[in-house]
């Protein structure tokens, strides 16, 4: 799964990669983006011609348009690629409302000796990359303001991440961004990202709390080899 991620890069880096219309937002670096928080999302624009994109701030945790509203008892921060086309909560967005979720790292927790070791995972040859996402707009019956929200698709882990967790977010190659947004049949797009251009870094427990959102969240631990064979700490 993907339960936390980061976007610490300059907003101009999003413009270079995603070529969205409109002003560049004034976004502070985010080291620990957590569910229910607002985060930037790239989607197809309603105006501007074929392929035009815009940037919107959305709530992380999909709220289906037909639901009664946000309910933290049900986690919709991730959608499994294997079933996303059939699940009632996701299939409408899968067909009509796909998005790109900008990131420059994400986190997974590895079970070890009764505790959980957090890891930061990056793509070493990309300053910014994109998760495959879906978005929805929910409107309350009582006239409350609409809530736009998103989820991140996940798939089975690649060889690098499998010792840490059995799932990983779907990272799209830049050449596939428009195909994903346009609704291309995504069998090949939803495969695990290759291990070679990715890196893992063991970090401290500060990342565990969503109240913490600062550079100390990604401070590395000792990187000596791990005799268990997992990526070293």
Mean pLDDT: 89
**Helix count, DSSP H or I runs of 4 or more residues:** 3
- CATH topology descriptor: hypothetical protein yedk fold
CATH architecture type: Alpha-Beta Complex
Tally of separate domains: 1
* Fraction in helix: under 10%
Largest sheet: 8 strands, mixed
Rough shape?
A: globular
Distance between the termini: 21 Å
Overview of the molecule:
The strands form two sheets. Strands 3, 4, 5, 6, 9, 10, 11 and 12 form an eight-stranded mixed beta sheet that branches. Strands 2-1-7-8-13 form a five-stranded antiparallel beta sheet, with no helix packed on it. Strand 9 (129-138) and strand 10 form a beta hairpin. By secondary structure, the chain is mainly beta. The two termini are 21 Å apart. Helix content is 9%, strand content 33%. The chain has a single domain (5-218), classed as hypothetical protein yedk fold, CATH 3.90.1680.
Q: Could you list some keywords that capture this structure?
A:
hypothetical protein yedk fold; 233 residues; mainly beta; 5-stranded antiparallel β-sheet
Topology:
Layout: E1 5-7, H1 11-18, E2 30-33, E3 38-44, E4 53-60, E5 78-80, H2 91-96, E6 98-103, E7 105-112, E8 115-123, E9 129-138, E10 147-156, E11 167-169, E12 171-172, H3 177-182, E13 198-202
Parallel strand pairs: 4-10, 5-10
Antiparallel strand pairs: 1-2, 1-7, 3-4, 6-9, 7-8, 8-13, 9-10, 9-12, 10-11
